[in-house]
Every structure is written in C-alpha cells, then in structure tokens.
Amino acid sequence: MKTRIMCALLLLCGIATSRPCLAQTQAANDAIPTQLTAAIRADVAEKYAQMLSERYVYVDKGAKMAAAIRARLQAGAYDKIISPWEFARALAADARAVVNDGHLNVFFSATPAGGHGPMMMMRRGGQPSAQMLAESARANGGIVDVRILDGNIGYMEVNIMALQDENGKAAIAAAFAFLRNTDAMILDLRGNTGGSGYAELFMSYFSEGAPITGATAYWREGDTTREQVFRTTDLGPLSYGAKKPLYVLTSHRTFSAAEGLAYEIQGFKRGTIVGETTGGGANPTNDGNTRLGYGFSAFVPTGYVVSAATGTNWEGVGVKPDVDVPASEALGKAWSLAAEKLAAIASDPAQQTLLSALAAARLSGEPSLTAEQAAGVYGAPGKPQFEVVVKDGRLYYRQRQPYPADFALTAAGGDHYRLDEFPDDFSMTFFMRDGKVQMIPMLPGIHMSTPVQEKQ
Questions:
Q1: What distances in angstroms separate CA 185 from CA 170, 316, 397, 424, one per listed residue?
Q2: Partners of 226 in the β-ladder
Q3: How far apart (Å, rounded) are the C-alpha atoms in residues 146 and 157?
C-alpha cells in the first residue's frame, strides 16, 4: 500500500518501479539479448499480455489487448523480428491497434541497470532512489527558462512535470517568487510531454484561499477501484494570485501530466490556452514503467482521471486551445493578448502607451515590415534618438554614444528583434500604426521621453 500511495502522487506519466513483472526471474531481467530468439519473443509477449489483462485500467479492454497479443504471437506475426527495438515497437503498436491509448508503450534498453524508456526507476519500497533524487536536482522542477518580457509580463517555460520532491518544490517556488510582481504570466508547456509531477502544485500558485479539489484519480487494484483526490494548497503570500491574467502555451506534443495542468487551468477558467490541441493522454499509472525481462519494459495505464471542474478528462481528445494558432506563433500571440488586456486597465500613461504598442506589434511568425521599412531615424521631430540602418539586407542599430558602433538586430519573431552582443532583454520592436512606422526600443540604461518612438 505504501508503494501505491507514493506512486499515485505522480499524476500522469508516472515513475517506474523495479517491482518484478508477474513471475519473471532475476535471470530474465539481467539477460540482455542482441538478437531475439523464439523463446524470448514468446516469454516477453506473454508477460506483456498478462500485464495488460491484469493491470490495464479498463478490465474488458485489457483482456482484448491481451488476446490480440497472444493471437499475433500464435499467428507468427513476430517470428521474423530479431531486433529487440523493433519487437518493442511491434508489441506497443498491436496493443494500441485495439485500444488507442497514447500512454501504452513498450521499451527496450541494452543497459542492464535500467534506463527503460523515459522513466526513472524507483525502488520497490516506493521511495525515490539516489538516481531519481540526482535527476530531480538537475531537472530544476522542470523549469528551463524564467524571464520578464516587455510590458512586465512574466514568462515561465516548463519542459517536464518533474518529481516534486524538496528540490522540485524549491525550484518552482523560486520561479514564482521571481515573477511575483509581474502583471501577467505566460506558462509555456509546448515542449512538455509529462512526467512525475502533478498539476495541483502549480494550481496552488495560480489560486488563493481555501484549498480546492482539482481532480480525482481512479486506480485499478485487482478487481477493485481506489479513489485518490488531488487538492491545492493555500500558499498565502507566496501565491501568484487568482486574478492576474494567465496564458498557457500548448502544442500537439504537450502530453500527459502537462495536459492535466493545462486542462485544470482551462476547466477552472483560470487562464487562456493558446496554441495547438494537445496529445490526449489522461490515463496515468501507479505501477510505473515495469520490467518484462530481457531488457524490455512496459508502461501500462492503471487509472483514469476525472476533473472536478468538468466531470470528465482529455483522454483521446486533448486540451483544445481557446486561441488556436500554430505552436511556433503561440508565444507572440499570448504576449500580444496579455499586453492588450493590461493596456485596458493600465493607470500609468507611459505603461499604457507601451502595452498598446506591444499589442499592436507582430511578435511571432514572419515580419510584417521589410528591413527597408523598419530602417530610419526615430524620435521626436528635431530630436532624433535612434537610428536603424540596413547593411547587406540586415538591420543594425547605429549607436552614437558613448562610442560609435553598429549592432546587428537578430529576428526574434515577427517584427521583434534582439540586439547582438547584448542580453535578450535589449530589443527593438517595430510596428505600423495609422500609416506610420513606430518602434519600441527596450534598451536598459538609456533614458527615453516616451516608450514608443516614431520614424521621422
């Protein structure tokens, strides 16, 4: 039971256990073939069939998949396969042909110590291993980028739902602390295919007050079903709050636990989903990635999730975006939407001018202005402050003080450019409004009378 409880916290993609699969022997675990024999194929296929029958979340579907694997084995469908990797793919494909569950998978590793598939191994006692803890520390809570975009809009990129141990929680807390005073946030899940973390920790930062139930997991345990409720935590002043605008970026790669987070944010109407429909995997496991022997392991979902907000989940359909745009343009679109929303409520005139300009600019995709259109002198009439020139078809910012120099502008999406040789927050963004080309120069340390400069 201790193992079950520990693993159940890992809401979607799951953490693998090293618990032996069925009656497999240690010798089978340790024997890693370079080529398959008929005996190995039969043994692995049968163990996989048993696992599907005994553990898959839906009993009837598990039985059908098991029958299909056994039928394929008896029919000789695997007889000519000698590559272990090809055999793993074939077993997974045959199971998915019966039940289209994106979490179903079979892996092969030639490394005897483990490394089966993308999951880390957990000891039988259910406690994180030293390897898992080391991986967790390096994962940094799954957060790979935290910054503040022009307009005081926070940006957090989370590429994996990492193990939420002390290391993971500390990294996530630090990221939210850094962005606490931003006026809106963009949460980027476009590259996140899931992991061992769960949505409620993030939802705790995006809510406030008394804890709420986010979702319930229903786990198959033999012939019975066990419920597990996931709730937020009242973080008090550490919370980002429940009212600041929030935009979540998704792609077709966003999967599993990452979808769970996007789904909860959308279901509770806490934020706006921008991007593409996600992968559609809502059936988790509390068994993890389990060994079949001979270097093979399988991921078999043992539960399903029901959202407290919708009464259902995203299995097979994905999380559908509120604003449907290609993933490559999602950041720019969300940035513009956030700027537009903040401009409508801004009380400071200079900030309102900046936000309105950002909302009007193209911040992703191809530029709307040519280099020749963007080039020119910018500033008030008779008081030129910035000069942009074209050399060999490329834009350059021409600096006059404190020393003459031309700095190349590198495209960063749409009409937004970064200055070479400077940190990323040094930028210039061009846009057309009322028939006139204007520029938003973000050059820390340079005093400007207005945050938006017009081309003379």
A1: 19, 29, 30, 18
A2: 219
A3: 7
Type of residue found at 400:
R
Please state which of the ranges 14-18, 134-138, 166-170, 195-199 shows the lowest mean pLDDT.
14-18
User: On the CB side of 49, how many CA atoms lie within 13 Å of its CA?
Assistant: 16
| Confidence class for position 402, pLDDT limits 50, 70, 90 | confident
272: closest CA among 199, 322, 333? 322
A 10 A CB-CB count for 12 gives 28
**Given strand 213-221, what is the order of strands in its sheet?**
224-231, 213-221, 303-307
Q: Is the pLDDT of residue 22 over 70?
A: no
Tell me how long the chain is: 456
- CB neighbourhood size of 247 (10 A): 27
pTM of the model: 0.88
Average pLDDT of the segment spanning 20-25: 41
**Helix axes 166-179 and 130-139, enclosed angle (nearest 10):** 10
